[in-house]
Design a protein that fits this description.
The structure holds two protein chains of two kinds. By secondary structure, chain A is an alpha+beta fold. Chain A has a single domain, classed as Alpha-Beta Plaits (2-Layer Sandwich), CATH 3.30.70.1350. In chain A, about 40% of the residues lie in helices and about 30% in strands. In chain A, strand 2 and strand 3 form a beta hairpin. In chain A, helix 1 runs antiparallel to helix 3. The longest helix of chain A has 16 residues. Chain B is α+β, with helices and mostly antiparallel strands. Chain B is about 45% helix and about 25% strand. Chain B has six helices and five strands, in the order H-H-H-H-E-E-H-E-E-H-E. In chain B, strand 3 and strand 4 form a beta hairpin. The two termini of chain B are about 25 Å apart. Classes of the chains: A alpha+beta, B alpha+beta. At the A-B interface, helix 2, strand 3, helix 3 and strand 4 of A face helix 3, strand 1, strand 2, helix 5 and helix 6 of B. Strand 4 of chain A pairs parallel with strand 2 of chain B.
């Protein structure tokens, strides 16, 4: 599976977790703003690079954010396997 | 203010125009950006508030045009993701998400409008500083207490800052005759 395919799978896995309102574009690192601007609309939101996967989520206000983020991390970790470190970032808590 | 919001490539003015167009045609760079979404939601709330004030005070006494614009500029600064605040290893919430949560919890209190929010570290203690306006002839202390309670509940439920000290300062009172004090 390519990094792109894996990132798309992560997007889907995260979005399917109860309490997740939506998956957002994961923040990029150095030079990230330019990279984000160059991304096409159909590209994955999550970021997979080397041994790290980052997923950014918006959590529904009626779901506890930490527990929801933990559920996303568990789902994504299951998907990517133990060799990839998973970071879940709650970017919004949405009413 | 025309800064790029959240690395989206779009400015506050662009977001305002997008909202005016009913968010169509959809722009993925905006719709997939949490900072843009927080700002759009704030614009929607402020628009409703502005109409509410006009309806209540009479069309001849609309809220000061600069007041809501200034508020929006403040929100644009606050929604920036900022630092990652850790829950546990591998799980974080952004400072921008927390500030937005604080603002939305405060705004949900009848008669309160959050002007600014600030998260400060004082050694081991985190302090949340909130400035609010109180709308109408409501008791200031009661509204301030309700804001503090609502924010404390939201922080406990959603963030690692459940033990934070919360200071609420009333900086404006907007009376029902349209006067600002």
């Amino acid at each position: 599976m390519s990094d792109r395919e894996l990132a798309l799978a992560i997007d889907a896995a995260a979005a399917a977790v109860p309490g997740v309102r939506r998956v957002y574009r994961a923040p990029a690192g150095i030079g990230g703003a330019a990279r984000l601007l160059l991304q096409r609309d159909d590209e994955p939101l999550s970021d997979v690079r080397r041994s790290r996967a980052t997923v950014s989520i918006g959590v529904r206000a009626d779901a506890p954010a930490q527990a929801t983020a933990a559920a996303v991390a568990a789902a994504v970790q299951l998907l990517v396997g133990p060799d990839i470190e998973v970071l879940v970032r709650v970017g919004r808590i949405e009413g | 203010m025309n800064d790029d919001i959240g690395g989206s490539g779009y400015s506050l003015d662009d977001l305002s125009a997008y909202l005016d167009r009913g968010r169509t045609p959809a722009i993925a760079a905006i719709d997939r950006n949490p900072e843009c979404q927080a700002l759009l939601d704030a614009m929607t709330r402020f628009g409703a508030l502005s109409h509410e004030l006009v309806d209540r005070d009479g069309a001849e006494q609309p809220p000061s045009p600069g007041w809501l614009d200034g508020l929006l500029d403040t929100v644009a600064q606050e929604v920036r993701a900022g630092r990652d605040l850790p829950y546990t290893e591998g799980l974080v919430v952004t400072e921008g998400a927390v500030r937005t949560l604080v603002r939305e919890a405060g705004d949900a209190v009848p008669g309160a409008l959050v002007g600014s929010t600030r998260i400060r570290e004082e050694g081991e203690l985190t302090r949340i500083e909130i400035e609010i306006s109180v709308l109408g002839d409501r008791p200031l202390v009661a509204v301030g207490d309700q804001v503090r309670g609502a924010v404390a509940d939201a922080l406990r439920r959603h963030t690692p800052l459940g033990d934070a000290a919360i200071d609420v300062t009333v900086v404006d009172v907007h009376l029902s005759d349209g006067a600002e004090r």
